[in-house]
Amino acid sequence: MALVLDDFGTGYSSLSYLKRFPIDAIKIDRSFVTGLDQDTGDTAIIAAVISMANALGIGATAEGIENAAQAAALYAQGCQLAQGYHYSRPLAPEAFTELIATTAGVSPIRET
What we know:
TIM Barrel, 4 strands, alpha/beta, single chain
């Protein structure tokens, strides 16, 4: 079982949680992804969070990716996992299984 800290950087998330709990991964909140490459602060925060996650040996997933430009920018910053409408809207279990079967081996970040 993995422990993932959701919406990292907002609300009640704290850097101290990364030391106090056996966190396996963090999810970068979509509010930062939305401003990627438009707001220097959001871009810097994302770069810092990805770098920190890599240094700590934990995963980082970007939430709320809505277009190829965001996906490419995140990949360029070293983000290996992503989720958002750019990839798929929410799906029923059967449709999800079909999606996984048809996209096996496709990178979650890069355009193919």
